[in-house]
Amino acid sequence: MTKVGFSLLLAVALTAPLLTRPARAEETCILCHRQLREARLRRPAVEWPTSIHAQEEVSCVLCHGGNGEDETVSAHDPDSGFIGRLSPMQQAERCGGCHGSTEGDHAPDEASDAWAQWRQSAHGRAAEAGSFAPGCADCHGAHAVHEVTDPRATVSRANVVETCAYCHADPGLMADTTLPDDQYDQYIESVHGRKLAEGDPDVPTCADCHDAHGARHGTEAAATGCKHCHEEIGAAFDRGRHHEVFANYGFVDCVECHGSHEVAEPGAWLIGGGAQAACRRCHGRGQEVFDKVRKLGVDVNRAEQALAAASDEKRQELEETRRGMVLALHALDIDGVSGAADRIVSSVGPVDTTDAQAAPSSHQPAHAGRAFWSAVVLGGLFLLTLLGGVLVGRARRRRS
Ligand code: HEC
Ligand code: HEC
Ligand code: HEC
Ligand code: HEC
Ligand code: HEC
Ligand code: HEC
Ligand code: HEC
Ligand code: HEC
Ligand code: HEC
Questions:
Q1: Which residue has its alpha carbon closest to ligand 8 atom 34?
Q2: What is the pLDDT of residues 87-125, one digit of tens each?
Q3: DSSP 8-state secondary structure symbol assigned to residue 181
Q4: Nearest CA owner, ligand 3 atom 10
Q5: Is residue 163 in contact with ligand 5, taking CB distance under 6 Å?
Q6: Fewer beta carbons within 10 Å, N or C terminal of the chain?
Q7: At what angle do helices 290-309 and 334-348 cross, to 10 degrees?
Q8: What is the pTM of this model?
Q9: Residue whose CA is at the smallest distance from ligand 4 atom 25
Q10: Terminal-to-terminal C-alpha distance of the chain
């Protein structure tokens, strides 16, 4: 066959379907937009065919409205409900409206509560008030929307942190809010962030702690989030005295010692009276509890030094005992900790302890700001208690 003949055949083969089939809703929009010069106008027509929506025939008009039969720009007929650039509120209505139920043409197989969650979230409330906030397409994209488990999706595990950070790590975009912009920088250096980068499927992303659509406030997220995954430690913590007093003071359980975005690899540096120890923020020298704090620190420290000197085999053998010590620590079971430390130390044998304090790790959480405010809160509460005591005492004396 000649080259010309082949080309002719190919051209007929390619155009035949368009000539014989009546134009489907998306085709007039796509056909024109695919040829437009301006990238902003062309890109949607190139990206959409790759999306999950194209597979489900969720075409241009189902989101934008307009007249899908019209081959001219009057296809953008406002009377047919055409909207060009959908605002976050309009996105919620069009995307959320379809995703909220399984009824109607091209409806999803499963209903999603995305719209309901988003509407009552900080994001949705800000959008409703006309402030800057993400609509559905800011997180999912508008045209290259993929299934959330698809690695190409902007909200896949590998991509979601960057998607949140696009706004939350941008000082310019965060300028009009009261929120800090340091969560991303802290998170990627944290234990969780580093394991996510290694592909660990179980560590939390921004969306696991804050919810995908609820943008839950962090303290609310922490109240259940950490314990949900670190179940055993959570249960141990709930048995201890901290559980009760933290609730009374409004402290945020795990976060007070480990931080939230900056969670670092824990170790003996975190406990006791040392400069990096989390305990120092609330327990100062001279307080009655301080002796107990220091004893816990000394016990954990000597156990860890013994473990560091032990052979791999020995360390493995002692793992359960070490784990028991960590659980006892979270339950503030002082005897439990020293008992486990004794067992570890005697099992490993004598260790050279000239280098007494364990070297602080380079990944410690930044506690400075918190420390100040915890001190202020504790100090204030202490004074209030004193004042309360004095007043009650006076009232009693007056009555008697
Ligand atoms: C004959 C060509 C043509 C057809 C058919 C067409 N468009 Fe357009 N579209 C354009 C051009 C040109 C622009 C840019 C100028 C303008 O906004 O009118 C545009 C702009 C747009 C915009 C951006 C509007 C904005 O405010 O920035 C959207 C969204 C859009 N079209 C969607 C659609 C949809 C949906 C359909 C099918 C119902 C469609 N177009 C059919 C040519 C077309
Ligand atoms: C699932 C819903 C959905 C579908 C389907 C959809 N769009 Fe859009 N489109 C949007 C949203 C939402 C925006 C606004 C995005 C934004 O502002 O970031 C948008 C924006 C646009 C824009 C403006 C882009 C810009 O940067 O200014 C054009 C042009 C456009 N769409 C054309 C199309 C065409 C053509 C089709 C069909 C091939 C289509 N859209 C299908 C939701 C959709
Ligand atoms: C702040 C970012 C963000 C916004 C805004 C957002 N989403 Fe999502 N969405 C996500 C993330 C992250 C996931 C993945 C959740 C997961 O892996 O559990 C997701 C999952 C989904 C899913 C699949 C799982 C489910 O919940 O059914 C749908 C459908 C969805 N979103 C629709 C929407 C719609 C509709 C809107 C607008 C009302 C919206 N999303 C707004 C981040 C967002
Ligand atoms: C006309 C209905 C309709 C509209 C409008 C619509 N979608 Fe969808 N969407 C679907 C269908 C159908 C699927 C395929 C998955 C299914 O059946 O559950 C889907 C899939 C998705 C998924 C993947 C869900 C998953 O389980 O992994 C996301 C995310 C999504 N859409 C977001 C959006 C966003 C964002 C918009 C608006 C910009 C939007 N959708 C508009 C019908 C719609
Ligand atoms: C398009 C930008 C943008 C994206 C993307 C975005 N956010 Fe936001 N987010 C904001 C803005 C703006 C606010 C502040 C809203 C306000 O004015 O209260 C906010 C607020 C928040 C809050 C604070 C809630 C509170 O109670 O104070 C959390 C938590 C949050 N976002 C989490 C996320 C998570 C998680 C993601 C990714 C899944 C994400 N955001 C994606 C812009 C964004
Ligand atoms: C391990 C759980 C966890 C992860 C992962 C996480 N956060 Fe948080 N986030 C928290 C906690 C707890 C707080 C509240 C305490 C604080 O401010 O440190 C918080 C606070 C915030 C705030 C301040 C407003 C508020 O809700 O208190 C924003 C904004 C925020 N996180 C965004 C993000 C972003 C963006 C990511 C991903 C880069 C992320 N978070 C990852 C737990 C988490
Ligand atoms: C989605 C589940 C999940 C959530 C939510 C979560 N974590 Fe984690 N966390 C993990 C996984 C998985 C690891 C890495 C495996 C391991 O060492 O346990 C980890 C590691 C850690 C480590 C280091 C453990 C070690 O031995 O080095 C600490 C400390 C930690 N998380 C504290 C927290 C705190 C505090 C919160 C709440 C602010 C939290 N986690 C929320 C799953 C989670
Ligand atoms: C009073 C401070 C404090 C609080 C509150 C606290 N932790 Fe810890 N956590 C520590 C210290 C100190 C270590 C290091 C112990 C060691 O090195 O043996 C540790 C270790 C850990 C580890 C590592 C476990 C391992 O096997 O090595 C995880 C995970 C952890 N904590 C999670 C949590 C969670 C989840 C919460 C909330 C339920 C929480 N922690 C509350 C001080 C605290
Ligand atoms: C956010 C503040 C805060 C932090 C951080 C903190 N504690 Fe406490 N702790 C308290 C409060 C409040 C009490 C109750 C004080 C009292 O009973 O007088 C308490 C009580 C205790 C007690 C006494 C328990 C009992 O049964 O008598 C011990 C032991 C203790 N903490 C150890 C520690 C250790 C070890 C650390 C560091 C790893 C630590 N705490 C970090 C606030 C904190």
A1: 254
A2: 999 999 999 999 999 998 899 999 999 999 999 999 999
A3: S
A4: 212
A5: yes
A6: C
A7: 30
A8: 0.90
A9: 147
A10: 118
